[in-house]
Structure formats: C-alpha cells, structure tokens
Amino acid sequence: MEVIRSNFKDNLSKVCEAIEEADFLAIDGEFSGISDGPSVSALTNGFDTPEERYQKLKKHSMDFLLFQFGLCTFKYDHTEEKYIMKSFNFYIFPKPFNRSSPDVKFVCQSSSIDFLANQGFDFNKVFRNGIPYLNQEEERQLREQYDEKRSQANGAGSLSYISPNTTKCPVTIPEDQKKFIEKVVEQIEELLKNEENESLELEPCTGSVSEFKERYIVISKVDDEERKRREQQKQAKEQEELNDAVGFSRVVHAIANSGKLVIGHNMLLDVMHTIHQFYCPLPDNLVKLTLLCFNILNSYFVSRLLDTKLMASTQPFKEIINNTSLAELEKRLKEIPFSPPKVESAEGFPSYDTSSEQLHEAGYDAYITGLCFISMANFLGSFLSPPKNHVSARSKLIEPFFNKLFLMRVMDIPYLNLEGPDLQPKRDHVLHVTFPKEWKTSDLYQLFSAFGNIQVSWIDDTSAFVSLSQPEQVQIAVNTSRYAESYRIQTYAEYVEKKHEEKQAKRKCTEDSWKEMERKRLKTQCTPYVSQSRYYCVNSFTGTSTVGKRSMSPIQEETGSDDMEEGEDPEYNQTDSCAEPLPDSKKRAKKFKKIKKEQVPAGSFTSSSNEIFEVPETW
Amino acid sequence: MEVIRSNFKDNLSKVCEAIEEADFLAIDGEFSGISDGPSVSALTNGFDTPEERYQKLKKHSMDFLLFQFGLCTFKYDHTEEKYIMKSFNFYIFPKPFNRSSPDVKFVCQSSSIDFLANQGFDFNKVFRNGIPYLNQEEERQLREQYDEKRSQANGAGSLSYISPNTTKCPVTIPEDQKKFIEKVVEQIEELLKNEENESLELEPCTGSVSEFKERYIVISKVDDEERKRREQQKQAKEQEELNDAVGFSRVVHAIANSGKLVIGHNMLLDVMHTIHQFYCPLPDNLVKLTLLCFNILNSYFVSRLLDTKLMASTQPFKEIINNTSLAELEKRLKEIPFSPPKVESAEGFPSYDTSSEQLHEAGYDAYITGLCFISMANFLGSFLSPPKNHVSARSKLIEPFFNKLFLMRVMDIPYLNLEGPDLQPKRDHVLHVTFPKEWKTSDLYQLFSAFGNIQVSWIDDTSAFVSLSQPEQVQIAVNTSRYAESYRIQTYAEYVEKKHEEKQAKRKCTEDSWKEMERKRLKTQCTPYVSQSRYYCVNSFTGTSTVGKRSMSPIQEETGSDDMEEGEDPEYNQTDSCAEPLPDSKKRAKKFKKIKKEQVPAGSFTSSSNEIFEVPETW
User: Fold this and answer.
1) Where located (chains A, B) (predicted)?
2) Is the pTM of this model over 0.80?
3) β-pair type (B430-434, B463-468)
C-alpha cells in the first residue's frame, strides 16, 4: 500500500493495527545518497573497527534524506500455516510546516539519484506528496510554540500585541494611514456600545495595487461560554496540526513502542538514518548509540533488530549461500535445502509478484527481506529433533542473531554489536603503511613482492592497511623498512596503540558511558518479562562442520548492491585472522555484561535445545 | 522548447543558431535551494556591502544545484517591426558519466523544493532525463584520461597490462584456473599460426552462479590499415563521448562566446551559479569575480549583463513601477505609459500565453524577463527627440545599466558593480550594536526608544545594525552607552575600521588583483571593436525630477519572489544616507579606471544623445 501525505491520516490507524498484530516487522529505507565525502572504498575500509565505521557513516552519510520507508508486517496464521503480510510504502519529505518550522536541507548524491531514477523511482511523489515528520526536539519546540501562543491568547497581557514569530513592534502610524486607523477605532467603539450588532467586518487594508484575494478582519462580540467553546475548537485544531507535523515519526514511534522483532537487510544505515531523522542527532560514539537504541527500543518491551545479511553470512547459511545481496538471497532461498515461505497479502492489500517486481522500492524490499528471514528461520528448525517446519519470530533459535548489524566489507569483523563492546580481532598479519600520495596499488604490490599474495585496503591518499598471508612475515617487513625514506611501515598493533594514545582523554568518557549502560540494564530488568543472562558461545551445531575461532569465510562478491554503490565491491580473498580481544578491550569487555535476553513466553516454543547457533566474532 | 538529455544532441545546433542570430538573450535559473546556512534575513542584511553579500552567497548558496536553465533568444525583425523569440527550457542533472567521473553532491532546501513542487515542477524530468555537464577542470581531466588511455593503447608498453582506472595488478593464477588459462594461451597460439582463421571467440570465464548475460572476448587478427581504421573509429567515438559529457556546458560557452547582451531578472545568483557550475569554483572576492567575468565574457567580444530588476528600480522607472517582482513587473509594463512589446515565437517554437502560464519555469521566466527589457528599453526611446518606438539592445540608452547586478534587500546600495570597486555609501546614521543572544527586536526598540523611528538589521544572534533617522543622534547614542555592560554600541565607521584592521593582510592581495584587472583591460582593448572610455555621471534626464546624490527610494515590498524566499521581504522604510566613498575606498577607486565600453557599430543607432540615464550609486 502506497502511503503519501494526502492519504496518511486516513491510513495511520491501519498502519498501527498492522504493527500491533504482527509477529515481526521488516523495514527498508531509500536514501538520497550514501556517502558525502571520501570515496566509498575509503568509507568502507576492510579493516575498519565497528566504532570507526560508525563514525564514518555518521560523518558522511547522515546529511542525506531517507525519503522512502518500507514497512512490511508479518503475522502467522497457525490454522492455515502461513504468514499474512501487510506492506506499506511511505514517501517521506520534510515539507516545512509553517514559517517558523525547520527548513531542512538535505544532500543528494548524483550516482544514487541516477540509480533510483533508473529503477523508476518517483521523485515527484516524494517532493510533491511526501509525508512530513519532526524529530523529538522539533516536536517539543512546536508544542512549546503552541503553548506560548495559547498562554498569550489567554491574556498574558503586555506582550500580546506582538504577533508571535515576527520582529514587528509598535510603530508610529504613518500620516496617510491615520484616517483609516481612526475610523476603525470609531467602528469598534460603536460595536461595543450597540447591543444589536454581534459582529463587525473591517475594510480590507491591503493597498490598491495588490493582486491578493481580499482579506479582512471580522470582530465578534462573544460571551464567556462561546469564547471557551471557540478556544477549545482552536486547541483541538492546533493538536491536529501538531499531529500532522509529527507525521511519519508517529509510525516510527509505533514500531519502536511495539517491541516487535524488526528485520532489515544490511540495516545499519537504515537504523542510523531512522534514529537521526525521526528521533535525534546520532550520539558521539557506539556505546552511546547502544544506550540510545535501548532507550528507544526498550521504552515498552525489549526490542530486537535482526539483519538478514548477517544471518545469511553466518553458519549454517554461509556455506550454502554464495551471494547475500537481497535479490540473490531471495532467489537462493526458494531452492533446496530451503523452502519458499508461505506468505499471502492481507485482504485489501496488494500483493507483490517476486518474479517481476522491481527491487529498490522500499516496501517491496522490506517484503523480500521478510521472506528471506522466514526461509532462514524455518531452515534452522530442520536441525531440531524432531525437525520443525515453522520457526517463529519468538524462537530461541534466532536469538543469536539479535542486535548484530552486518558490517559491509569489513574483512574480519562480521557485525556491529548493539549489545556489547566492539569485536576486536587479532590483526597480527596486518601492516599499516604510509607513503607519498603519488603511490598507487601497484607500488604497494611492488614493495611487498617478496611476501607473496597481499591485500591492500586503502585508508586515504597516503596510507593503507596491507595484510600479508603469514603473520610471521610481519616483523620481517617492518625490519626491512626501518631505513626507508619514502614510506613507513608499522604493525597493526603499533598503529592502534598510537591511535589509543591520541584518544586517551576521550576513552575516559566512553568508559563512563558503559557504566551508565550497565545502570540502564539493571533498570530495564524490571520489565514484565522475566530476564535471564545467557551467552552464546557453545558450538554444538549438528549437520555441518564445527565452526572454530579460526574459521573464516570470504566476503561474498555480489551482483546486486545493498545500499552501497554497485560494482565497487572489492573482491576480498580469504584472510587469516583470529579474534582475541586486544589487551585494552579485555578490560572493557570485563566490565560489560550481556544484556538480558527476553525469555520466551511459555508454550510458544517446544524445543529443548538451548544454545545451538553461534554468531562468531570473526569471519 | 523543452530540452532534456534524450533530445539535447539533436537540438544543440538549433540552440547555437538561435544564440548567434539573436539581438539579445534572456536567461533564468531554477535552483534546488537558496540559502544553506543562516536564515534569509541574516543572509541578506540591509547593510551588507556588495563584497559581504557576495561572500555570503558564495558560502551559503553554491552547494545547491541549478537544475533548470531557461534561455530565450530575441531577434528583431526590422521589416515587421517585431521581435522573434526562441525559448528553451533545459533540464540539468550531473548524471555521472562513468565510474571515474565526478559524483556530484548537491543540497536541496525543503522550502525551495516545496515551492517548486507547488508550481508543478517536474523533478522526475530533472533526475531521469537532465542534461549532464562538466566544468572546465573536469572537462580537462576527462580529456587527459582519454589521452592517457590512447597513449597506453598505442603501445606505451610495460604498463598496458593494467586496465585504466583500476587497482588491478598481476596476480598469481589460482590453481583451479590454471587449466583454463593454459587452454586460452594454446588457442591464441593456434590462431596466430593458422592463416585461415581471422578471429577467435574465447569461452566466457564468469562463474557458473552468475546471472550476468554471457560476455566473452573476441580476438581478431588485423593488418596495419584495419588497425588504424579501428583506432580512428574509436577516437571519434571517444570525442563524441567527451562532448556528451561536457553536455550543457557547451550551451553556456556558446552564450558567453556570442558576446550578446544577456538579460536576467535579479540575476546575481543566476550568474554566480552559472559560473560555479559550468566554469569553475567562484573566486575568493569580488575583484577576482570581475576579472573572471571579463575572462569568460570577453573571450571573443565584450559581453554585457543587464539586470531588469535593477533597471526597473532605477530612474526613470522607479517612480512609476511599484513592484519589481518579475510577475508584477510584466503586468505593469503592459500598461500606460509603457506599451506591450511585439514579440512572436519563431516557427516551430511553442509560444507562451502570459495570461495563463505558470511562473518559475525557467524558460518562461526568461521569456518574461526579455519582454520586460524590451518594454523598458522602448520606453527610454520616448525621451529622445524625436522619440523612438524601438530601442535596440545595442543602443547607448541602455549602456548605463550594463554589468550592474541588483542587490536584494540592501538599503542604500542598488547594485553589485562588475566594472569597478564596491559602492560605499556614507552610513553616518547607522550604529553597530552587540548584545546578549537573548535579545529580541523589541529589546532594541526599547533601547533606542528615545530616538524615534529606528530600523533594525540583524547580523547574527548577538549583533545588528540599527539605523537612526538623524545622523546627529548617532554620537548621543554611542555616548550614552559608554558604561553599559550588557550591550555595546559603535558607529558604522568604527565597525568598518575594525573589520579593515582584521583584513589588512587580505587587502594587499586585493589591490594586486586590481592591478591585474587593469593589465587585462589594456590587453582586451586590442579587440576588433574600437573602444572608448566613458563615464556616466551627468544627470541630464528630462521629463522627471532630477536624481540627486541624496535621493532615496524605498526597496519595494513585493508580492512575488525573485529567487529569495517569499514573504520574508522586510518592509524597509525610506532611509537617509549618502554615497561618499570611505577614505580607504577612495584610494582603490583612484586606481580603478572604467572598463571600456563597446562602441556602437555605425548606422544602428541614430540618436545624438550621449549620456542620458544615470544609475545612481545609492538609493
């Protein structure tokens, strides 16, 4: 269902109802751009830490507009053994609400716009009929404006001659207008004296040249009761205006407050944009983001995010799924050993035809994402004894995937963890190299020609990470470079150490934030659901090979793009790395305790298995 | 005529022909926004100097996209005594040309987008079918890329195994692909040996999972002649690709190179955007802008810009034209004492109906601007003896209006002069006030309540210009504020002095630029046209009152908007000021000599009057 400004109000209750009744929700966003800064390859360095990636996206991607939001709700019908889905495709545009409302500026990236144009994206619909929105601060300010106006109208007195939001002040009446004003004063005095007349229409006072429609002031005499009635009418109207201005943000609030599982595909940018556009500016660092997410998502229940791209890249899927781009994933999941999910659109909702539909319409992408989730979740059920055909969104089987957002093009860190400190793989085969800005990749290949296959991850014009195939080679490379003049080589550990030193002051603040996080955690345990701390690390997966700490899988080469520019996907080879927290992060990790997991309500899940699937901390 | 990407190439010669044959051109641009920074009121302070205004627009307005460009060419038919016009409405979009071409990011301002959306602006046409463009530097780079590619293909040798623009390098062939590669080598050797076979189709080498259309390499044996023929073909194709990429910039070059009079309405932003988008980043200061304009516009002839908003705001028009917004101006100029111009659209070109057409379509706005110019120019002819009905674009009567761009909402400086130093009115009734950021306009009225009517021009949150009605009050105000703690008052002269001190270093550079300007001027005098220095300052206008140095006119309150946001037009009252260059600017002015004016070709103009109309330096 297409939702635009003109039909938003009529359909809002339908949207909220769909959210409330759903077993899970799938979302997707379309943006006016991806990266406003360095090239995508610099934006997504293969050795970014989650914190670094977050900082880059925050800095270079938040000025774009999320202008289409797809929401697809899925509700399982146990009798018919199928899902009933309702799909909504919202067009979003920050149409200024009034003169004093925020005049949002947003950036467009030509390549993204061109890409969407080629998909038939309807920009006219966005700009002419997009649903407005306010973030929380803007909503608060607008509410205050109304309150102030009301208190002024209720006779705050001395200031009430100033129209709100103008810089007008009392002026001396110009000579040529004195006669007009005097006449008005006379007329009003007449009205007050005369008991018969109830109202008075003043002459229009716009100049004769004007082409405006004639507007004039009507002065009415009213009693107290009538006055109150009119005031209440006005207040109701103002409340409606306020609701209209908050607009699409109400849908986002409904999603957050529902406590439902929210599915996305490669959803980090979607989550960041949603917070940034409809809640508040993104916090300084990942720890604070986590805090904020729990603030938003935990407001009523414990909410969870699940990224289907991460799920598809993880055991037991990664061995049987070659390409995790949304389009390819959807196709793959229709084939053996998976089964296409049974999903029907609800009555009155249009259905999508997956064989012909265009990707990159947010509503459709959300729908496909939901299908992928169902197929993968159900596949997990086949490992139970006895096997299950249907695995619900409340099943423990999928809990290991909660709140872990896929990290695009990071070689050895699979996800950004919203429930703990950054994963810190041991990068003992990685070098940090600085060199003159004239150097190209071929110069680096030249330099390291003695070491066999290497991988280059550009940081900027004059530096890059170079990963060697053997950690033992690292010290040799550093030693041989000792007297080099044009370039400098250091180990990854040395590089990190230096960066840490620079950020000493900053870290103090971060630790404090973790403490606050802990405090928050203790507080939220008082929700209606009984909580229990658990930690998924046992690797008792049956049917495929055991996943060890050192097991790796390459980042897939993709034909489609999941919100990053197409075709720029570098072809990473298998890398050798090992996830052991660095000394410093160990301390942080120690302080951190797992956020509680929601316990499954009795009866909805019968398996006795407890800790089955592991999401590893490295690829 | 609507010109989009798909019909641009077919119509380019038509566009160039129209420019070449025209007597004058009218242009207009539509942008994705106006001001990306402070509020419009801060962007257009009533006491901005031209330099300050330029800096503000440069800083806060250039990140927007000029995405519709209107061009209307007017050619006078002496036999029929009417103009023949050709109107073009170009949709512009920086569609990335290839992987390595610039990926332009531009800002959209919701209020501007919303305004255009309400006018029925077709965003889909812009984004799906806008004509691309390159600025001069980008064009140069692309040309270099092609040259490099060519020289590589011509056997530069050792590097030719590297595909251009990739970071690929020779790699060790993986074990599982060795067989495939060996087979290819064998096949090629076979082809070279065998005289019968002319070409060889290699097997596709994409993996089996791929959904790509099958692509494969064909190896052909060719002799030297065939090789050359193919190379020439390729070069011609590359040249065409290059032309396509330069795209709309070719139209702008044609306009600049034509040397024709270019008309615009409130055209400062149009001129700035045109330079910024299709030539090069805007220069640091106004002097350098002037230099650049003369560089661009003078490349073949002496070109001239004329701003109809400035013209309509100046004698002899300002007394009889109340509202200089484009829509109102067009209406006014149909009435006595003006006469509607006789203009017909050329064969094959659609005509506009001014009574029903939508404003803010760039092609239409350009057309209307041209109509306004013709009416006003012809009106000037009525003051000649004998009077003339038709005043051509080459007439001396309009020369006083050349290269002076209207300054929106500046109280006492009418225009930005592209032919000389900033106008510097004496602002001896103006105070500069700093105060706590909580202050509102009413606090300032309060503070100056003893001085009668004042005018407040906000600079930022904590400072404003306040103009008093009497210059004599200025010192009193400064004196009484001496011991104030929360605010500070200084005279305008003191304020300027302090700013000058801060910019001491910078100014040196500006003076050097003026010297270069002078050098340039001497050089351009070698053009085919005989030049003559003249200076319009005699005020011998007949028929209306004499315009003295102290005569003022209020800035009109407008119903329409000329590229600034609607309705925010402050209602300026008549101000009292006097244009006398400040001590410092006198020195600069001394150094500066008038840029030559093009002498009118013999026979095209018969009036004996020489210096009739003056464009004053202050309102």
Assistant:
1) Cytoplasm; Nucleus
2) no
3) antiparallel
